[in-house]
């Protein structure tokens, strides 16, 4: 590990939580160079929905490379990209009646968000975007302005402008929360926009994570999302869903917002969409907005990632039938029950379980405790991380393909790690 | 191609220049699905320095995947990353006496630039960055503020602030240029900064491409770069070199600024560093600046790209001896001579050759003509693109590993394409 | 009037409401050049608290001029300024236990607000100011950013930044108001500031009009003002009261916020403070904040207005005893009763009376109606104006010294004008 | 003086240079309460062109007050304002063939500048304004962004945006100046604007002081002004002349830019225009731009200043014939000769004389020396101030009406004060 300390930037972070050197990984297991195996409840921050080194993807990628497939293509046409587009259209868009265009940009979530905001501003001729408390949208200046965590914001070095933050509408408010979220907050916001002397300018867009992952696994209520959607439409603003961490099947359905009658103008996707862990980002954009783009107006070198298209297409094949999604619902329920049991045992009225599908979280209400729990987990062979304000929420996002045995063992390890931390406290 | 028109965003650009569907690629050749083979003088916008599907890289990547190497690791420690760090340190940094730390971020050039600017602002407590006319640094808002092309800037939708643009110091000014660049411009700028009533605020950084690729292949003079470096140091500002397109061996040496006595505080790298076309970006940061980072203060999901580390390490092995760089110098000279011959034949006093190593360009002074030439090239089986203000400059950046035969054939195709265009005009 | 149309800018406004040329004015009467006399319920937008050409002031000014007093002195010391400072200290500050320093700047309200914001940012090292819906603070860019009316904001030509607007806490909410103001809104805002992931940055100041005049004569509740004050203190932000229109005795006490246990860090004053209609602006600044200024750091040519000091001192003499303030309370009650009577007669549940002391308003809920009423008033010989969103509120701010007969006659004229407008509608 | 120290803000500035309490003033003399008489070479920062308590103005103002003239009228029509408009039109505009509309705003220079910038942005739909090194335009945020002195800028507390500063084109460059001003700088700027990849956005306006007063009495060359005018027109930008300190006869002609074939779109006036020292500000706006204003879109309480209209009209009467302007030329020449003599005697190659008409300055190249000289002057009974970067320039702007004896005596006092300071150094 000395090599990293000597040569790599001090900014490195997760390695401080997991102080070992990983050598290999397979499905929900990572192995360090000392041979210790870890169960992975983190999945590369939600990228590896189909597990590390998914066998089908490995095979497809190796075949592609051996056949000299076009690995890097900017935004020229390639067969790999066409296959991906067709699969996504057939598997995801068509069944939902979505006619969104697919746009590729620099293959990171923050690029996707920047691109979406840029288009919303272009379409509406307005500047201000409404984003929400506890939201996380990326680190480049345009996306960082929408991100809320002051630790990240304070590093910007310049004022972060053109975004107004409003309370997020959780379906299950935290204990003692007085932020005033919910549909009432949307009504108040509507009144402000209706008043030409409120000081608020008509917004270009509402940027919403239907489930805030980094922000503490806060699940928006259907009512609130619908109210925001109606307000956006009434104001002539675009509705942008950032489904970068919660999308791609994580919640037991492809989009985290499926089944609520929602109709976003733009959906930003990244993380899980490339399947294998190689980068990819893609926005879904309604054609009536997409046509406002001029060719090449927003570019990026790594827009055409052959390996990600190939593995991503394999990932889409998991949605050809309901098997995986049913599995996710079943395992998600198991995770939730387990956590609810822990609340009853250890922290009734103190801890809180939140989540949907296989993104489940235990809000410990205490960042120091959560940090200790995560460290204990690592010692015991379980990888997971904390999120939310002050890092007080333990988030569990194992690969959707995690074997039942690993899932159960991981939950047991967590119980023990929590117990240790509570006893030591 | 209909699939793309129906499903993909209207923003797609290069595909309009190359209206075909590519299926495979090898070294300096791309083949479309109709079986037509193209010589590649574009190399994925400068990413594929070692050719499409470089054989050594293919082998290394496939072995890595088969061994279940960690493909995606955020910023945890992995053996693949350690190997890359050590190789970069040994091959590139140590021989140059550079003690810069290596920082990974979202794996695109724009993320690298945003990260560098963020740090410069943090270190200095200042906001304003000096960037240069014709510079290109990326599309996210922080980097876009430094980018100059109004086509990109106008799409921002918000004011682009905190950057002051000054004339770039070419070593070979364009015909009739009256921008007032050169060392004299640096002296004038120094005087402005020396005057507390100039209206200019002390800058956080000078952001410079030693060779502006997208901006028209403008090569900075050594004198100008040294003058900027001295000014930056005198003002307590950081010197940031954006070597994203011109670095990684493109100019016949690893960094485009090697051998001039330059000592940048930060170097941004991306494109060619991952070797195979899978994304990677990395900043080199002097330790005295790097220590201003707090852990995880600037994050990004795709910071730990196993495949890029593996292929990138193979790429670094090309710098173990001088063979490739000597080759680049030889081929670059051939390209330059060929272009100079064209100037003599067709456009003395009208066209201009600019470049270094295997980034060579012919400034045709006319965007419509350049567009026609590029289209003719495509027809004849040669891929290349235009750059510079109004797209008036033909840029040639073939893989460094292009076979001599392909290089010669490509240059001949270009001659014919130019001749056709001039005759038609 | 042709002269004006030919020579003066099209931006002229009030003259369109009062299409005549005024020649002289005395106390609450203005006379046009045709000899028609008007009762003045507008008092120069709240400047002429002591009437046009107040006899005591006339005398004092003429004596001063005849004695070659220093009419214009920048911020050098003059006897006239000393007299004013001493009088203000003795009459206003000392009895209230206020140890605020007096600061002069460019003699307009907007300059006063800009100066206050500048200091609050300097003291706290923060940027963002919280201002309130329906607030009016001036037209220069710093103050305009806090002003809410979109008609004014849209003319800025640049983004108006660094201000966050929140609902104002009326003591008597408008019919059907759903802005969500009141103490509950302050609690919600407190929660947002308490959460380091809310996206809100700690504010430099809360900028509040205890009574919003231009915004529609909205009177803040004591509870809300106290809650804002507590929040400001808890956040380390400054509490700035903009008492430019409601101060100087207008409400039956010198400050509009007297008697509520409030303790603002800065109070901005202008309009009425110079007494005679010659410009003056002054901020009251707590010494612990004032010491953050360096000499001459914020300047302005017309800071030292001899005539305004002289007349302003006369104005202060009206506060040596309670006679005027008792009169204001009595007349204000008469105005309010009259308006309440009109509500009962013409618009129960439709119109609303709001105000304090001799700033009384009738909210007609309809800008077109209010415009017609004001036009009818002018025809009948009564000058008054509309305010509030869309100009739907008739505001009455006669000179505090208006004779009882003029006040009664003015109210009668108003009744008739309203009746006419309602009948015509 | 204790009263001021106890009660007035620490920001007070000029009083530190002139530590006494002034009681009366007449023409070019100020008398303190101890009876000491001072010759005034400062004229209230250029306001009192016609002397303190100008007899004709005193008479007119007193008559106006006694007749109950309308002292304060917002932007309603009054007879006093009409008289002023007609006089300005007849005396100033008509003889020059100017058809500019007259616009009144908050009566300070900074309000005038803010208003001009607002209109230029409105007319062009652009944001960025080009202003010039050493320029001074006011203290409110919009004008401060154009002001260059870092002492003022650093107090802003927010970033000052939307202005690009370029070198000012002096007719007589300072010793050793390397700012690169002059027509060459305009050519370079033109080239930058002509290049769509320069990073510069088309400007809304060029904001120029034909003579920079606060900036160090820098007189623009005719060639440079014409080049800027041509560039502005070619770019579709407005040309705004800030003639606030140098206008109103100061230079021996009404406008400082008279007689050069210049045709500004907007001229900002304040300071001297109200004549007596009571505030007034006025913009002259070409009708084709003025028509972009909507009624009342930019307001301000103190727009209609009766006393300033009355005195200002008296001031205009001085331009009915050439007597005063001939006098100004004669006295200005005397001042200049005197200063040139001092340069020869004391500082050839070290000091520099600059100025036009009765704005003359001695650049001592040393702020500490200039401060000592000004202090010595005060001791000897002469009031003047320093300007320019670091306060190194002594500026002399006596009332235009100063008696010859006072002028000569003042110049002698200055010689002695300079000699003392040089001997002490």
UniProtKB/TrEMBL annotation, chains A, B, C, D:
<dbReference type="Pfam" id="PF00202">
    <property type="entry name" value="Aminotran_3"/>
</dbReference>
<dbReference type="InterPro" id="IPR015421">
    <property type="entry name" value="PyrdxlP-dep_Trfase_major"/>
</dbReference>
<dbReference type="InterPro" id="IPR015424">
    <property type="entry name" value="PyrdxlP-dep_Trfase"/>
</dbReference>
<keyword id="KW-0032">Aminotransferase</keyword>
<dbReference type="InterPro" id="IPR005814">
    <property type="entry name" value="Aminotrans_3"/>
</dbReference>
<dbReference type="InterPro" id="IPR049704">
    <property type="entry name" value="Aminotrans_3_PPA_site"/>
</dbReference>
<dbReference type="InterPro" id="IPR004637">
    <property type="entry name" value="Dat"/>
</dbReference>
<comment type="similarity">
    <text>Belongs to the class-III pyridoxal-phosphate-dependent aminotransferase family.</text>
</comment>
<protein>
    <submittedName>
        <fullName>Aspartate aminotransferase family protein</fullName>
    </submittedName>
</protein>
<keyword id="KW-0663">Pyridoxal phosphate</keyword>
<dbReference type="GO" id="GO:0008483">
    <property type="term" value="F:transaminase activity"/>
</dbReference>
<dbReference type="InterPro" id="IPR015422">
    <property type="entry name" value="PyrdxlP-dep_Trfase_small"/>
</dbReference>
<keyword id="KW-0808">Transferase</keyword>
